[in-house]
Specification:
about 220 residues, alpha+beta, about 25% helix, about 20% strand
Length: about 220
């Protein structure tokens, strides 16, 4: 996330509120999340391996059961639901020796590790987020730097945690082509497909609690 753009502080505050405060360890209750706009129907995705996947290998056709309205609240609601189902959600983490931050590091009950980057973009009417010419773009603007950044950060997280880390960019404000696609190993999704993108992450061989402790020590929270 570009910390100088959008209402970063407000967005993170909404996520923390949906998560029930500062406690984001597995199983933490996120009271009141059902009242967050745009998350109704998330329950339908449970037990489907991350949403009904009816398309091909690029992830097209995922049915996460989440409406596209709600913007910030939708992303916050998905993360809160995951937290209530045993996923640890660590917010706004610093990277020692760098000015960059990790928006969210999500660690699953089976050792899954997912780096989630939240973006809020704007573009002319009719524009979409896609991959014309093999590069990420938002309308006429080249946004390939986001994919490059997430690939770099996910490799860094993998090296530090000793676990495979999936990278997901969730884009709000501009429709994503087909709702979800994969670019150079990075999932690019609209908020309605964040649920499925996280739940498809591969299981790991490391204990969740150990990974959470290690991540908290390596990447201190900025908020």
């Amino acid at each position: 996330m570009n910390r100088s753009s959008w209402s970063t502080a407000g967005f993170l505050a909404r996520v923390r509120a949906a998560l029930g405060g500062a406690d984001t360890d597995p199983g933490a209750r996120a009271e009141g999340v059902d009242g967050v706009d745009g998350v109704e129907g998330v329950e339908e995705a449970e037990g489907t391996g991350g949403g009904a996947r009816t398309g091909g290998g690029d992830g097209a056709g995922w049915a996460g059961g989440i409406g596209e309205q709600g913007g910030e609240e939708t992303t916050a609601g998905v993360l809160a639901r995951l937290n209530r189902r045993g996923w640890a959600v660590l917010c706004d983490l610093g990277v020692p020796g760098s000015s960059e931050n990790l928006d969210f590091l999500v660690i699953g009950p089976q050792g899954q590790v997912v780096l989630v980057d939240a973006e809020h973009w704007s573009a002319a009417d009719g524009a979409t987020v896609g991959m014309p010419g093999g590069r990420l773009s938002c309308g006429a603007e080249d946004r390939q730097e986001l994919v490059d950044k997430l690939r770099r950060e996910s490799r860094m997280v993998e090296d530090e945690l000793g676990a495979v880390a999936e990278a997901v960019a969730v884009v709000e404000g501009v429709p994503v082509d087909n709702g979800v696609f994969r670019s150079a190993g990075v999932w690019v999704v609209g908020p309605q497909h964040l649920w499925g993108a996280v739940l498809q992450a591969p299981t790991g061989h490391r204990d969740q609690a150990a990974l959470v402790r290690l991540a908290k020590g390596l990447f201190p929270p900025l908020g």
